[in-house]
C-alpha cells in the first residue's frame, strides 16, 4: 500500500511498489483523459526552498493534469514560512491546507524531517546533493518503457560519476534488477566513488567496467545515460583538453551505437550532447522529461489513495 | 448582507455578521465536499506586497477548496504592478481579472485605500503592524468552536502585549461579547497600551487583571492565547533573565491549567511554547491554523454571495 | 486556421484572422459562462523572464476563466530553467508539461526562437522594447468595440512616439484598415521615427499629421491613445517646462473633444491622465484592460483549437 506513504529516498519503495507506480504511469500516459479528474479537490503544496523550475513545473503539471490544484513557493525569499520556524512546525501548518507536499531543500535530510512530522505524504524533490527520488523513478520508468523490462540490460553512465547524484541513485536502484551490467565512462578524477563499487556493485555481484572514453564502449550499450562534466572538476588543463571531447555525445559517436540504444539525460544539458543528436530517433531525453510528469502523476495518485 | 463587502478592520462586521460567517465555516468544516464547487469560475487575487507564506497559503487553499482559482504575487519584487502606479489604479486593473482580493501590504491603510477604489471585495491580509482581521476571525471562530460560545469566558493573553497586533484586535473583538474577562500576562515593559485599557476595557466595563508571571494565573484561564516575547524588547538583561521562563509555556505549567483550557497561538512560534506541549490534547494551535482556512472559505463565499 | 499557431509579431495574423479572434472575444465578453470550461484540462505556462504583473495576471485570468490551469514563473531569479540552458531546450521541456506558452523576455527575439523549437503555440508577451502583440490585439479589439469598425477613423496618439513600442505597433496594425487617419502629438524630440513615416504611413498612403500640443487637435479625434512622456527624454529643461502640460490629459482638454471620443491607454499611467478624467464616460482605459483578458481568452482558445 502506497497510500499515505512519503518518498524520501529512491530505495524507500520495493521493486513491486515501483512496478505499481510504473504500471499506473503507463496507463495514464496512454489514456490521460481517463485520469484527468481523479485528484479533483486535492491540493499539492510545492515547497521549494531553492529554485528548480523544471522539477516544480513537472510536479505542478502532474497534479493539475489529475484535476487537482497547487499552492506553493518557488524560492527561499518568498518563504516567510522558513523564518525562525522549524521545519516540523512549517509542515504541520502546510498539512492543514494541502494533501501532499513536494519539498526541495538545500539541506540534506530536510524532507525526511518534514515527513516525520507531517500528517500528509511528503515527496523529496531534491535535498542538496543528496537524493532526488522522482528523478530516479523517471529514469527507471523510461528504461522500462523503451526496453520493456528493467532486467537484462547494459547501461552506460557517462560524465561526472563522482559527484553526480542522479547517477549514484540510478546505479543503486538498477542493482535490484537481474542481469544488469554497468559501463561507467568518466575521467579518472571523476570515477564512481569507492562505496558505490564496494557496497552496491560488488556486494550485489553486479557486472561493471570502467572506461575513459565514450567511443571505446558505445557499441556495447543498450542505454546511454549522459550527465555533464564541468571543466573545473578536472585536475589539470592537459587532461581536460585531451579528454573533453570524449564526454560530448555527437552524431559521429552515435554511429558507433546500436540501432536501439536510447540516450537519456536528466536535463538541463549544457554542451555534453551536441544539438545534432536531437534529431536522432534514439535521442530520448525530452521524452524522458515528459515521462517524469507521468511518473509523478502515478506517484501522487497512489499516495493519495485515489488509484 | 456581506455580499460585495470588504473586510479591512476586524470590527467592520457586526457580531451578527460574524456569526453568519462562523456558522458557514462550521458547516464547511463538517462537510467540505458539499462546498467544494461553490466558487467555481471565481478568481481570488492574492496581492502580497510583503511575503507571508502562511497567510497566503491559507487564502489560496481556501479559494481552491471552494472550487475557485487564484492569481497573485507573493513578494514586492515580482510586483511590477506597484512600480510608479497608484494603489487605486492597481486595484482597478486587478478588478478586471479577479472577483475578490486579499491584500498584504507593509503600509498601514493601503488595503483601505484599495477597497475605496475597488469594484470587488478587498480583504486586508495584514497591513504593517496595523490590522489582520482574518487572524482575528480565526481566533474568534476557534474560541467559539471549543467553548460553544464567545461569552462567559476568561481569556489569558500572554507575551508582548504592547506591540502585539493580534492581541489588541482580539481584545477589541472579544469586548463585544458578554461576561468576558481578560488576564493579561506580560513583562511590565510590554503591558497592554493605555488606550486599550481606557477605550476598550474600561469603557465597556470589561473585567481584567494584569500579571507578570504565567504560572500565577494559569488555573483561572479558559483560553490561553500565547504570543512571542522578543528578548530585545526587554529594558534590561536582569529582567529578561528573571522573567523569560514565565513566558514559555511548558508541560510543567500546563499541569496548573484546567483540564479544558485550550492553548491558542497565531503562529509561527519560536520558543514560547515548548515542543513537549504539542502532544497535550489542549494544545490547539495547529487546529486553529486549519480553522483559519475554513473561516476564510466562509468569508469569501459570503463576500462573493454564493452562500 | 489559428490552431497551433504562435503569435510573435502583431502582424503575424491577417486581418481576417484577427477578426476571427475579435469575434470570439466579443462572444466570450457577452456570455462568459458559456466558455468557462472550454479549456478544461489545458495548461498555460507563463514564462516571465522579467516581471510584468499586469500582463501575467491578464494571461492567467484568461486561461483560468476558460477552465484551464496555469504553471509559471514571474521573475528571472526563480527561473533555474534559464541557468545555462538554451531557450530551445527550455521550451522543449516546457512543451512536455503545458499546452500553450506566454513568454516575456528582456531580449528581443527570444520568443521567436522559442516558437521555432516549441511543439506548442508560443505567445510573445513582450520581448524587450520590441513587440507586445497581445497589447496591440487588445487595442484593436477595443477600438472595434467602441467604433463598431476599424476603418474610417481618426486616431490621436500622444506622448513619447519615438520610443513607444505600443504606439508603433498600433500604427502598423491600423495601417491595414481603410480610411484611417493618424494625428501624432509629441514633443519634437520624441516624434514618430522616420521608418514608421516612410515604410508604414507613406507607403500605405495613410493620412497623418503631426502636432506639438494636444489641445490643438483634440476636436478632430475619434480615439485618443495616450502614453507617457518621461521628463528625462526631453532635450532641454525649457522645452519640458513649456510643453509638459500639453501631454497631460485633464478635464479641461476633454471639453475640447468629441462627445464620442474614447480615451485609451496601455497602462500603467503615471500622471499623463489626471484622475479627474477617470469619471468621464469617455475614459475607457480600465475597460480596455478588461478587454485584454477577453482577447487573450479568444486567442488561446483559437490556438488550442477548442473554438
From TrEMBL, chains A, B, C:
Record pathway: Pyrimidine metabolism; UMP biosynthesis via de novo pathway; (S)-dihydroorotate from bicarbonate: step 2/3
Pfam families reported for this sequence: OTCace, OTCace_N
Chain ranges of the Aspartate/ornithine carbamoyltransferase carbamoyl-P binding domain: 5-144
Binding positions for carbamoyl phosphate per the UniProt entry: 54-55, 104, 132, 135, 267-268
Any one GO BP annotation for this protein: 'de novo' UMP biosynthetic process
Annotated Aspartate/ornithine carbamoyltransferase Asp/Orn-binding domain residues: 152-301
Keyword Transferase: yes
PROSITE patterns: CARBAMOYLTRANSFERASE
Binding residue positions for L-aspartate: 83, 165, 228
GO-annotated molecular function: amino acid binding; aspartate carbamoyltransferase activity
The keyword RNA-binding belongs to this UniProt entry's keyword annotation: no
Known catalytic reactions: carbamoyl phosphate + L-aspartate = N-carbamoyl-L-aspartate + phosphate + H(+)
InterPro entries reported in the protein's UniProt record: Asp/Orn_carbamoyltranf_P-bd, Asp/Orn_carbamoylTrfase, Asp/Orn_carbamoylTrfase_sf, Asp_carbamoyltransf, Asp_carbamoyltransf_Asp/Orn-bd
Gene3D superfamilies: Aspartate/ornithine carbamoyltransferase
Record's keyword terms, sorted: Pyrimidine biosynthesis, Transferase
Known EC number: 2.1.3.2
Function (record text): Catalyzes the condensation of carbamoyl phosphate and aspartate to form carbamoyl aspartate and inorganic phosphate, the committed step in the de novo pyrimidine nucleotide biosynthesis pathway.
Family to which the UniProt record says this protein belongs: Belongs to the aspartate/ornithine carbamoyltransferase superfamily. ATCase family.
Assembly and interaction partners: Heterododecamer (2C3:3R2) of six catalytic PyrB chains organized as two trimers (C3), and six regulatory PyrI chains organized as three dimers (R2).
HAMAP family: Asp_carb_tr (MF_00001)
Protein name: Aspartate carbamoyltransferase
Organism: Clostridium oryzae
Amino acid at each position: 500500500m502506497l497510500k499515505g506513504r512519503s518518498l524520501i529516498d529512491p530505495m524507500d519503495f520495493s521493486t513491486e511498489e515501483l512496478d505499481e507506480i510504473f504500471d499506473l504511469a503507463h496507463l495514464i500516459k496512454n489514456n490521460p483523459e481517463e485520469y484527468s479528474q481523479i485528484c479533483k479537490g486535492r491540493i499539492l503544496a510545492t515547497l521549494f526552498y531553492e529554485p528548480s523550475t523544471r522539477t516544480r513545473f513537472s510536479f505542478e503539471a502532474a497534479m493539475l493534469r489529475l484535476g487537482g490544484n497547487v499552492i506553493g513557493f518557488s524560492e527561499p525569499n518568498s518563504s516567510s514560512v522558513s523564518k525562525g520556524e522549524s521545519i516540523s512546525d512549517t509542515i504541520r501548518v502546510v498539512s492543514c491546507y494541502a494533501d501532499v507536499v513536494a519539498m526541495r531543500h538545500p539541506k540534506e535530510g530536510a524532507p525526511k524531517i518534514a515527513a516525520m512530522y507531517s500528517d500528509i505524504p511528503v515527496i523529496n524533490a531534491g535535498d542538496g546533493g543528496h537524493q532526488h527520488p522522482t528523478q530516479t523513478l523517471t529514469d527507471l520508468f523510461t528504461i522500462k518503457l523503451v526496453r520493456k523490462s528493467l532486467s537484462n540490460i547494459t547501461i552506460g553512465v557517462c560524465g561526472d560519476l563522482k559527484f553526480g547524484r542522479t547517477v549514484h541513485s540510478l546505479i543503486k536502484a538498477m542493482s535490484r534488477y537481474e542481469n544488469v551490467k554497468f559501463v561507467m565512462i568518466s575521467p579518472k578524477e571523476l570515477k564512481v566513488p569507492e562505496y558505490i563499487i564496494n557496497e552496491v556493485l560488488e556486494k550485489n555481484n553486479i557486472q561493471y567496467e570502467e572506461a575513459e572514453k565514450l567511443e571505446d564502449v558505445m557499441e556495447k550499450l543498450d542505454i546511454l545515460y549522459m550527465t555533464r562534466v564541468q571543466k573545473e572538476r578536472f585536475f589539470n588543463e592537459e587532461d581536460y583538453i585531451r579528454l573533453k571531447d570524449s564526454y560530448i555525445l555527437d552524431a559521429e559517436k552515435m554511429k558507433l551505437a546500436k540501432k536501439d540504444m536510447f540516450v537519456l539525460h536528466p536535463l538541463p544539458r549544457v554542451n555534453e550532447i551536441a544539438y545534432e543528436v536531437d534529431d536522432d530517433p534514439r535521442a530520448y531525453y525530452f521524452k524522458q522529461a515528459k515521462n517524469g510528469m507521468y511518473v509523478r502523476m502515478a506517484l501522487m495518485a497512489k499516495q493519495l489513495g485515489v488509484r
